[in-house]
Amino acid sequence: MDDIRDLLDAERTALTSGDFEEIERLSQIKAHFFEASANFPTDPGELEQINRMLRRNQELFRAALDGIQAAVDRMALLKDVRIETYLGDGQKRRISEKRSSRLERHA
């Protein structure tokens, strides 16, 4: 029983810190754990506690996905930046900058 609780707590920590590699690793372990029915507790109180932890992590997953989608949407808005300004003679001038759609990660 403590194994699944520790696993779900580690998953929560990875979710709240944005450690996607750790989330993937823990998801694989969790899948194998739940496939082995012998690992499941039978006590209703223990099952309820695991269910609460699973729901909590599911909400965190949902929030992480919403955040990623918001970032993708924002990047799409910023992809083509167009600024209009006026020159000294009153003529309108458009400054356009095309940005790469590639996401860069900086250390």
Structure description:
By secondary structure, the chain is an alpha+beta fold. The chain has one domain. It is 63% helix and 13% strand. The protein is built from three helices and two strands. It has helices at residues 2-17, 20-35, 44-78; strands at 80-86, 92-98. It has a two-stranded antiparallel sheet with strand order 1-2. Helix 1 runs antiparallel to helix 2 (20-35) and helix 1 packs parallel to helix 3. The chain is rod-shaped. The mean pLDDT is 84. It comes from Litorisediminicola beolgyonensis. This is FlgN protein.
Quick synopsis:
The protein is an alpha+beta fold and 107 residues long. The chain is 63% helix and 13% strand.
Can you tag this structure with a few keywords?
single chain, 107 residues, alpha+beta, two-stranded antiparallel sheet, 2 strands, 13% strand, rod-shaped, FlgN protein
Strand order of the largest sheet: 1-2
Radius of gyration of CA atoms, rounded to a whole number: 23 Å
- On the 0 to 100 scale, the average pLDDT is 84
User: What coarse outline follows from CA principal-axis ratios?
Assistant: rod-shaped
Report how far the terminal alpha carbons are from each other: 38 Å
Number of helices: 3
Biggest β-sheet: count, sense, barrel? 2 strands, antiparallel
Order of helices and strands: HHHEE
Helix and strand composition category: alpha+beta
Tell me the total number of β-strands.
Answer: 2
Poorly predicted tracts of residues: none
Helix content: 55-70%
Strand content: 5-15%
